[in-house]
């Protein structure tokens, strides 16, 4: 499934006209708002989703109810949101994996992520990290890539699952470096960590929060972060660009809010304003920084452009790597 050029931007005018808002029974919201988090409790997306729900709940006149619907790289929850009534009472915590990567990995999705969901606002982002087992004979990313180059297809590269950001960002690094590693997908970070700590994996690409303390304890080697600049929570860890000899490389994990296509424009505007305001506060910044996540709010229009660019980028990675999951 490939989005036509400007498809995401073009979806914005399809939002219902202001007059349709009056067709509802009373002003919006007049009952609880549901926020679908497309991953299980406990992960970074869950923390972001609950923070988003708290921001909305503090500024709306109705309760905001969180519903975790994990599975298929976020696509199960995303499909549930896409097929909900476009009345402003169901929102999706959108992720890079479901909104930008999934459409290329799962050609037979039961919904169209481009046409069936509209952007509301981006909320925040964080880098992934490249981690090595503690006894790998490489102390830098450059040395790890050289080791992979000397042993093509032999080093084991773990990720939290097929089609996850860890999988595709890792593949992007390896292809940029001209090396080949054997991918080993897991069902989340917990089993991935178990095998990494047991020495059954060589390299891991995953979300950052789980690894800094393990690196400080000497149990793993935190080789690089995937942001364009060093990340505030691990300032001594170099970027992939500087540590791996890959100038210009960067890849961020991001989150946002989307709504079913056809959601009235005034509701989308109100939600976007609330989210941007909330994610600009010190309270939210401090809460997210506990997870090495940084607020990065964007308007509806800017988020639409971001979605389009990410959709294109990760589609190219999926096609060049020949990855398909269904």
Automatic annotation (TrEMBL):
Assigned keywords, A-Z: Signal
Entry's family note: Belongs to the UPF0065 (bug) family.
Matches recorded under InterPro entries: BUG (IPR005064), Bug_dom1 (IPR042100)
SUPFAM superfamilies: Periplasmic binding protein-like II
CDD domains membership: PBP2_Bug_TTT
Lineage: Bacteria, Pseudomonadati, Pseudomonadota, Alphaproteobacteria, Acetobacterales
Species per Swiss-Prot/TrEMBL record: Siccirubricoccus deserti
Protein name in the entry: Tripartite tricarboxylate transporter substrate binding protein
Tree of life domain: Bacteria
Signal peptide location: 1-23
């Amino acid at each position: 499934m490939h989005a036509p050029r400007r498809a995401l931007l073009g979806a914005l005018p399809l939002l219902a006209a202001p007059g349709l808002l009056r067709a509802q029974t009373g002003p919006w919201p007049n009952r609880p708002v549901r926020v679908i988090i497309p991953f299980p409790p406990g992960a970074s997306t869950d923390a972001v989703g609950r923070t988003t729900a708290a921001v909305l709940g503090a500024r709306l006149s109705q309760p905001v109810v969180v519903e975790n619907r994990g599975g298929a790289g976020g696509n199960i929850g995303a499909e549930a949101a896409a097929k909900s009534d476009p009345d402003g009472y169901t929102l999706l915590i959108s992720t890079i994996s479901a909104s930008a990567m999934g459409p290329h990995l799962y050609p037979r999705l039961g919904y169209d992520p481009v046409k069936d969901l509209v952007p509301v606002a981006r909320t925040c982002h964080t880098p992934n990290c490249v981690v090595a087992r503690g006894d790998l004979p490489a102390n830098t990313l450059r040395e790890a890539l050289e080791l992979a180059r000397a042993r093509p297809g032999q080093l084991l590269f773990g990720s939290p699952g097929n089609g996850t950001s860890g999988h595709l960002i890792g593949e992007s690094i390896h292809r940029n470096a001209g090396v080949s590693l054997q991918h080993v997908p897991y069902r989340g970070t917990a089993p991935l960590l178990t095998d990494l700590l047991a020495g059954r994996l060589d390299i891991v690409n995953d979300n950052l929060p789980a690894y800094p303390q393990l690196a400080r304890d000497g149990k793993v080697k935190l080789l690089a972060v995937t942001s364009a600049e060093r990340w505030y929570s691990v300032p001594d860890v170099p970027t992939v660009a500087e540590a791996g000899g890959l100038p210009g490389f960067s890849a961020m994990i991001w989150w946002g809010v989307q709504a079913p296509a056809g959601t009235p424009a005034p509701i989308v505007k109100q939600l976007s304003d609330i989210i941007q305001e909330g994610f600009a506060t010190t309270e939210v910044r401090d809460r997210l920084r506990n997870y090495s996540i940084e607020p990065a709010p964007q308007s509806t229009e800017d988020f639409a452009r971001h979605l389009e660019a990410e959709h294109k980028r990760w589609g190219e990675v999926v096609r060049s790597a020949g990855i398909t999951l269904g």
